[in-house]
Each structure stands twice: as C-alpha cells, then as structure tokens.
Amino acid sequence: MIGIPSTTISSSDGPRPIPLIGMGTATVPGRSDEVKAAVVEAIKVGYRHFDTAAFYGTEKPVGEAIAEALRADFLKSRAEVFITTKLWCNSTERHLVLPALKKSLQNLGLEYVDLYLIHWPLKINYQHIKIPVPTEYVTAIDIKAVWEAMEECQNLGLTKSIGVSNFTSQKIQEIISFAKIPPAINQVEMNPLWQQKQLNEFCKENRILLTAYSPLASAGNSWGNNSVIGCDVLQDIAKSRGKTTAQISLRWLYEQGVSCIVKSFNKERMKQNLDIFDWALTQEDLNKISQIPQRKLVYLLGFVVREPNDITAEIDSKL
What we know:
Layout: E1 6-9, E2 16-19, E3 21-24, H1 32-45, E4 49-51, H2 59-71, E5 82-87, H3 94-108, E6 113-118, E7 123-124, E8 138-139, H4 143-155, E9 159-165, H5 169-178, E10 185-189, H6 197-205, E11 209-213, H7 232-241, H8 245-255, E12 259-262, H9 267-274, H10 283-290, E13 297-300, E14 303-306, H11 310-318
Parallel strand pairs: 3-4, 3-12, 4-5, 5-6, 6-9, 9-10, 10-11, 11-12
Antiparallel strand pairs: 1-2, 7-8, 13-14
Helix pairs in contact: 1-2, 2-3, 3-4, 7-8
C-alpha cells in the first residue's frame, strides 16, 4: 500500500490531517456500482481522501464502499478516511444548508463528513436539476447568510471543517471579513495549463489550503479533454524523466504546496498517480512549465465554459 503525505487544515478539533492526494468521484449517471468498486480498490491501494458532492450523485456508492471496506478490514475505523462533499447550488440559502448536509450524510451513511464545501458561489432558482442550467435561473447568493449556515453545520459536529469551491480571492476576502470560522479550503480548477498563481498566494497568506480539481483536465471524462495529457512541454519532461505526463502534472501541483483531487477507476493508474513523492522536478522543468500558455477551462453547471465566451462574463458577474 502506498503512503500519501498529508498537511493540516483548521477544524473543530484543531489542526486536522488531510491527505495531499484525494480520489475524485464525479462521473456520468448510472455508474454507482463502478464507483463503489473503484473506491474499495482505491482504499486497498492507499487512498484515504474521497471527494464527492450532492451534484455528482455518488455519495451513496462512496458511503457503501467505506462500509464494505470496514467490514472487510481494509479500514480499521471511519476515522482513517477523509470524506469531502459539497453543497449544491439549489440549496445555497441559509435555511437550506443544514437540510442539504443532513441529506448528504444520509446518502453517505455517516454521522459526519470531514469537509463540507460550497460547490459554487451561485444560486440556482430552479426546483429540479436540469442540464444545462438556463442562465436566467442563475443568480448571486447571500454569502453571509450561507456562510453562517455553514458555520452552524460545523458547530453541530456534522462536518469537521468547512470551505468553498470555485471562489475568487475577492469572494473569500468577503467571507473572511465577517466569518467566525474562516474557510479551511478553496477547491478550484488547477493544473499546469491553469496555474492559479495569484489565488494560490492569496490562500497561503490566509492559511487556506488550495485544492486542485481537474489536475489532468478531466481527461477520459465526457466533459474533459486531453489538453494536459497531450501538452508537448509536459510530454517532453515526462519522457526525459521516465514518468507519465499525469505524474509530471501531479508532481508539479505537489511542489506548489497544494492538495489535489485526481480521478481514475483504473487500478494501475490509481497506483501511478500516487507514485510522485520520491522524486522531484528540476528547476529547468519548473521553468518550462511556468512558460506554458494559460487556458482556463471551467466545468460549470453541466456545460463547459471557456474564456473568452459570451457566457463567461455573465457567470463571472455573478461570482
């Protein structure tokens, strides 16, 4: 079993360890059995952080996998795993936050999660999830009211830590200005093609851990692409080092002082994605990566938003 380094984040129990690589579970609908089997296999490989969300529809299979792993003695206790889930945009109102978390806990079959995130700083004024979401149903949220409800969730012991996802530094600064419990994490798109340098520095200055999703641009998923895996610069470095392009991207993230969420349901790739801790990139490698042209690719509400697009300005105005 491969050991994964950890860092600590603020929690109701004081500094709390969080593995620096977690397994993502976002997938297309109808793959619950595959998700459950993959999580069990990931536990056997060495993964201990599992990232899900109400929107993904994978909370139940993640919870079932944890229960199976405990029965099979792959885990000694619930405390060995770090579980993250997220508040979806149709529940970003003060009175809806706590019921949403309770529903997620019911799906997971757990008494608490380790981390609860606001998935997006947006409100969807639509009763049912419809993909893509018409932009006329997307509005800004009352962040103070929602964050106070998130704090209540932590104070009740239903989550050990709280944080945000897809938040700008300006939005986080707004939370910090009134929060009794500041965000522990900001989970955002980050990879060598979208390096988030300024946001990473801001989060470090404010003791917030930045967590990278789509570290490989979600290659292999219907909503992703091969922009990272197919990047010539990364491929050249990988070839010279005897590594995979994915390993170069993940190692680069590790050296930026962030954690990351990577998804593969393939056992061998699960192992490869953890084989990044006993070697380092050279300064020449880092210089080459720093010069890669930047390209933002945001996976939002079931459709892909690329800049510059007419919809991007509309969405950004609501962030």
